[in-house]
Protein backbone atom coordinates (compact mmCIF):
# COMPACT_ATOMS: atom_id res chain seq x y z
CA UNK A 1 0.00 0.00 0.00
CA UNK A 2 3.01 2.30 0.01
CA UNK A 3 2.74 3.16 3.72
CA UNK A 4 5.81 4.86 5.15
CA UNK A 5 7.39 3.48 8.31
CA UNK A 6 6.52 6.60 10.27
CA UNK A 7 2.95 6.85 8.97
CA UNK A 8 -0.04 5.89 11.12
CA UNK A 9 -3.09 4.15 9.70
CA UNK A 10 -6.21 2.26 10.81
CA UNK A 11 -8.30 -0.50 9.27
CA UNK A 12 -12.07 -0.08 9.69
CA UNK A 13 -15.35 -1.63 8.58
CA UNK A 14 -17.72 0.34 6.36
CA UNK A 15 -19.45 1.31 9.61
CA UNK A 16 -16.17 3.01 10.69
CA UNK A 17 -15.51 0.47 13.44
CA UNK A 18 -11.75 0.12 13.89
CA UNK A 19 -10.35 -3.41 13.54
CA UNK A 20 -8.20 -4.33 16.54
CA UNK A 21 -6.62 -7.49 17.89
CA UNK A 22 -9.51 -7.81 20.35
CA UNK A 23 -12.40 -7.54 17.87
CA UNK A 24 -10.78 -9.04 14.75
CA UNK A 25 -12.57 -12.40 14.91
CA UNK A 26 -15.89 -10.68 15.63
CA UNK A 27 -15.81 -8.07 12.87
CA UNK A 28 -13.77 -9.63 10.05
CA UNK A 29 -15.70 -12.21 8.03
CA UNK A 30 -15.54 -13.60 4.51
CA UNK A 31 -16.59 -11.07 1.90
CA UNK A 32 -16.49 -8.05 4.22
CA UNK A 33 -15.31 -4.71 2.83
CA UNK A 34 -12.61 -2.93 4.83
CA UNK A 35 -11.20 0.61 4.67
CA UNK A 36 -7.50 1.44 5.06
CA UNK A 37 -7.51 5.01 6.41
CA UNK A 38 -5.27 7.53 8.15
CA UNK A 39 -7.95 7.96 10.84
CA UNK A 40 -11.35 6.46 11.61
CA UNK A 41 -13.17 9.65 10.63
CA UNK A 42 -11.18 10.35 7.45
CA UNK A 43 -13.21 11.61 4.50
CA UNK A 44 -13.39 9.00 1.71
CA UNK A 45 -11.64 10.16 -1.45
CA UNK A 46 -14.15 8.39 -3.70
CA UNK A 47 -17.32 6.33 -3.52
CA UNK A 48 -17.00 2.64 -2.71
CA UNK A 49 -19.21 -0.08 -4.13
CA UNK A 50 -19.92 -3.48 -2.62
CA UNK A 51 -22.04 -6.27 -4.08
CA UNK A 52 -24.10 -8.05 -1.44
CA UNK A 53 -24.92 -11.70 -2.14
CA UNK A 54 -27.70 -13.41 -0.23
CA UNK A 55 -30.59 -15.76 -1.00
CA UNK A 56 -33.85 -13.80 -0.81
CA UNK A 57 -36.80 -15.52 0.81
CA UNK A 58 -39.20 -16.61 -1.92
CA UNK A 59 -42.11 -14.87 -0.16
CA UNK A 60 -40.46 -11.50 -0.81
CA UNK A 61 -40.93 -11.93 -4.55
CA UNK A 62 -43.73 -14.50 -4.87
CA UNK A 63 -46.18 -13.10 -2.33
CA UNK A 64 -44.95 -9.53 -1.98
CA UNK A 65 -47.63 -8.86 0.60
CA UNK A 66 -50.36 -10.02 -1.76
CA UNK A 67 -52.07 -12.39 0.66
CA UNK A 68 -52.08 -9.98 3.56
CA UNK A 69 -53.09 -6.96 1.51
CA UNK A 70 -55.83 -8.67 -0.46
CA UNK A 71 -57.16 -10.22 2.73
CA UNK A 72 -57.96 -6.69 3.90
CA UNK A 73 -61.71 -7.24 3.66
CA UNK A 74 -62.11 -5.68 0.24
CA UNK A 75 -60.25 -2.48 1.10
CA UNK A 76 -57.78 -0.90 -1.30
CA UNK A 77 -54.48 -2.64 -0.42
CA UNK A 78 -52.16 0.17 -1.60
CA UNK A 79 -52.51 2.30 1.57
CA UNK A 80 -51.44 -0.69 3.65
CA UNK A 81 -48.28 -1.08 1.57
CA UNK A 82 -47.50 2.63 1.97
CA UNK A 83 -48.17 2.32 5.70
CA UNK A 84 -45.39 -0.27 5.96
CA UNK A 85 -42.91 2.15 4.39
CA UNK A 86 -44.06 5.11 6.49
CA UNK A 87 -43.81 2.94 9.59
CA UNK A 88 -40.05 2.65 9.02
CA UNK A 89 -39.81 6.45 8.99
CA UNK A 90 -41.88 6.69 12.17
CA UNK A 91 -39.42 4.38 13.90
CA UNK A 92 -36.41 6.29 12.56
CA UNK A 93 -37.71 9.68 13.73
CA UNK A 94 -39.17 8.51 17.06
CA UNK A 95 -36.25 9.90 19.07
CA UNK A 96 -35.82 13.18 17.17
CA UNK A 97 -35.25 16.10 19.54
CA UNK A 98 -36.21 18.68 16.93
CA UNK A 99 -38.58 18.73 13.98
CA UNK A 100 -39.88 15.33 12.88
CA UNK A 101 -40.23 15.37 9.10
CA UNK A 102 -41.68 12.58 6.94
CA UNK A 103 -42.45 13.25 3.26
CA UNK A 104 -44.23 10.99 0.77
CA UNK A 105 -43.63 11.84 -2.89
CA UNK A 106 -45.30 10.21 -5.89
CA UNK A 107 -43.05 10.68 -8.94
CA UNK A 108 -44.61 10.23 -12.38
CA UNK A 109 -42.20 12.18 -14.61
CA UNK A 110 -40.68 9.30 -16.60
CA UNK A 111 -38.15 11.65 -18.22
CA UNK A 112 -36.31 11.33 -14.90
CA UNK A 113 -36.63 7.54 -14.91
CA UNK A 114 -39.47 5.19 -14.07
CA UNK A 115 -42.35 6.25 -11.85
CA UNK A 116 -41.58 5.91 -8.16
CA UNK A 117 -42.83 6.32 -4.62
CA UNK A 118 -40.36 8.14 -2.36
CA UNK A 119 -40.56 8.20 1.44
CA UNK A 120 -38.12 10.75 2.93
CA UNK A 121 -37.45 11.40 6.61
CA UNK A 122 -34.94 13.14 8.86
CA UNK A 123 -34.44 10.17 11.17
CA UNK A 124 -31.22 8.86 12.67
CA UNK A 125 -30.19 7.01 9.50
CA UNK A 126 -28.74 3.55 8.98
CA UNK A 127 -25.22 2.19 8.71
CA UNK A 128 -24.18 0.02 5.78
CA UNK A 129 -24.61 -3.09 7.96
CA UNK A 130 -28.11 -2.04 8.99
CA UNK A 131 -29.02 -1.46 5.34
CA UNK A 132 -27.70 -4.90 4.40
CA UNK A 133 -29.72 -6.52 7.17
CA UNK A 134 -32.86 -4.69 6.05
CA UNK A 135 -32.59 -6.67 2.82
CA UNK A 136 -32.87 -10.03 4.63
CA UNK A 137 -36.48 -11.20 4.71
CA UNK A 138 -38.09 -12.24 8.01
CA UNK A 139 -35.42 -10.56 10.13
CA UNK A 140 -37.55 -8.85 12.76
CA UNK A 141 -36.75 -5.24 13.60
CA UNK A 142 -37.23 -6.12 17.28
CA UNK A 143 -35.24 -9.37 17.52
CA UNK A 144 -31.89 -9.65 15.74
CA UNK A 145 -29.47 -12.48 16.41
CA UNK A 146 -25.73 -13.03 15.96
CA UNK A 147 -23.86 -10.41 13.98
CA UNK A 148 -27.04 -8.79 12.70
CA UNK A 149 -27.18 -5.11 13.61
CA UNK A 150 -30.81 -4.03 13.85
CA UNK A 151 -31.98 -1.24 11.58
CA UNK A 152 -34.19 -0.18 14.50
CA UNK A 153 -31.74 -0.58 17.37
CA UNK A 154 -32.94 1.26 20.45
CA UNK A 155 -36.47 1.50 19.06
CA UNK A 156 -39.19 1.90 21.67
CA UNK A 157 -42.72 0.90 20.68
CA UNK A 158 -45.07 3.86 21.31
CA UNK A 159 -47.88 3.65 23.84
CA UNK A 160 -51.18 2.25 22.48
CA UNK A 161 -53.07 5.10 20.81
CA UNK A 162 -55.46 5.30 17.84
CA UNK A 163 -53.58 4.83 14.57
CA UNK A 164 -51.88 8.12 13.80
CA UNK A 165 -48.48 9.55 13.00
CA UNK A 166 -47.51 9.02 16.63
CA UNK A 167 -48.11 5.26 16.58
CA UNK A 168 -47.12 2.10 14.75
CA UNK A 169 -49.39 2.33 11.71
CA UNK A 170 -48.11 -0.88 10.14
CA UNK A 171 -51.24 -3.02 10.01
CA UNK A 172 -50.20 -6.44 8.80
CA UNK A 173 -46.55 -6.39 9.75
CA UNK A 174 -45.46 -8.05 6.49
CA UNK A 175 -42.40 -5.85 6.24
CA UNK A 176 -40.95 -3.13 4.07
CA UNK A 177 -39.52 -5.47 1.41
CA UNK A 178 -42.85 -7.05 0.63
CA UNK A 179 -44.41 -3.59 0.57
CA UNK A 180 -41.73 -2.36 -1.85
CA UNK A 181 -42.22 -5.21 -4.29
CA UNK A 182 -45.99 -4.95 -4.00
CA UNK A 183 -45.75 -1.34 -5.19
CA UNK A 184 -42.93 -1.66 -7.73
CA UNK A 185 -40.01 -3.62 -9.18
CA UNK A 186 -37.04 -2.19 -7.30
CA UNK A 187 -36.02 -0.35 -4.14
CA UNK A 188 -33.29 2.25 -3.59
CA UNK A 189 -32.54 3.23 0.00
CA UNK A 190 -30.22 6.17 0.71
CA UNK A 191 -29.29 6.81 4.33
CA UNK A 192 -26.78 8.86 6.32
CA UNK A 193 -26.25 7.87 9.97
CA UNK A 194 -26.67 10.91 12.20
CA UNK A 195 -23.22 10.51 13.74
CA UNK A 196 -21.38 9.73 10.49
CA UNK A 197 -20.28 11.67 7.42
CA UNK A 198 -20.82 8.64 5.16
CA UNK A 199 -23.91 8.26 2.98
CA UNK A 200 -24.94 4.65 2.30
CA UNK A 201 -27.08 3.46 -0.60
CA UNK A 202 -28.70 0.04 -1.11
CA UNK A 203 -30.35 -1.09 -4.35
CA UNK A 204 -32.59 -4.17 -4.60
CA UNK A 205 -34.44 -5.21 -7.74
CA UNK A 206 -36.54 -8.14 -8.91
CA UNK A 207 -34.36 -8.23 -12.04
CA UNK A 208 -31.25 -8.87 -9.94
CA UNK A 209 -33.05 -11.51 -7.89
UniProtKB/TrEMBL annotation:
Under Pfam families, the record lists: HATPase_c_3
- GO biological process terms held by the UniProt record: double-strand break repair
Please give the Gene3D superfamilies that the UniProt record associates with this protein.
Histidine kinase-like ATPase, C-terminal domain
Kindly list the residue ranges recorded as spanning the membrane: none
List the CDD domains. Answer: HATPase_SMCHD1-like (cd16937)
Name of the protein in its database record: SMHD1 protein
Organism (species): Probosciger aterrimus (Palm cockatoo)
Amino acid sequence: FGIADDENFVITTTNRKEITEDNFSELVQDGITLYLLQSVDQMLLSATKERIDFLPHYDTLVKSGMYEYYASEGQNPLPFALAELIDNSLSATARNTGIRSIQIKLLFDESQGKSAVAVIDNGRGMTSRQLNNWAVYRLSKFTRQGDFESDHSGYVRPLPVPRSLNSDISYFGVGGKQAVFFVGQSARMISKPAESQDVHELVLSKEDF
